[in-house]
Design goal:
5 strands
Length: 323
Amino acid sequence: MSNQHLIGHDEAWRVWRSAIAGTRTHHGWILAGREGLGKASFARGAAAELVAEPGVPQPPIESHPDILTLSPLPANDDEAKKRDDGKPYLLKRNISVDQVREIQRRLTTRPTLGRRRAVIIDSADLLEKGAVNALLKSLEEPPVGTFFLLVVHALGRLLPTVRSRCTVVRFHPLSEAEVARALDLAAPGLDIETRRAALAVAGGSPGAALAFAEQDLGKAQALYARIIEHGDHDLSLRGALSGAIGARPDRERLAAAIEAARMTVVGALSKVDDAGRLRLAEAHARLVRLAGEAPIYNFDPSMLMMEIGSLLASAAPTREGAR
């Protein structure tokens, strides 16, 4: 991947390139910010710059011997087969201690093509407790020439002992124009309704915009916007929401539907008075809680969409919302 295709985060690039141009580059880096901002893409591009050597041809990042990536494995053997067949597959919830130890065994040798090696952890939020403790040993005594790039979506969930051993680079939401450019590069040819809806719920996150667009939830988002603005006294809009999600949505589609509802609430905050903001804040908190419960409980999709619709209706500036 060429860095010219990475959009935004100029300050993060300035900090990184200034550091690696020096003689004492810090060995541990935390790339922190909400999910979907492009931190993992930044990590891959930064790793490619780190390991490059003048006059030495560099293989693609995916097969580079000096760029090691830790991320959750397929959930089970069936999901691993889907991965091997090039199909979408589900992941385990955590990065295990065995995965960290396997990487550490590879760090006992010197880098292959040059003086430096990069280890990307995507994301460090998902390290199980034993894996964090194992990683700490490498951060405390890093092998010569090895640098760690930790992608982190929620910095507060990372142990202080890990944070204290790393340089933190914060990633901020992109402008709407930058998100639009990223979306057009990643998914050219989107229909107008889907593109408009994806940008409306992105909140500065290209990843969120793309995930939404891939799930084809434009109709659902339009219904969200109508409910939160006008309410839904006769339940007709909530009934339409149940149809918009589909009969058998997978976990990713349900997550995208909840996130789209949450961002619809966020987008409405600037358009209401103090009482309206209080209702929206309550709906937002309940949607966040629902997002955490959805992967654990086997919700009926239609009932889940009805629940989302009811939360949005409770925040509408109507009698229903005032109850």
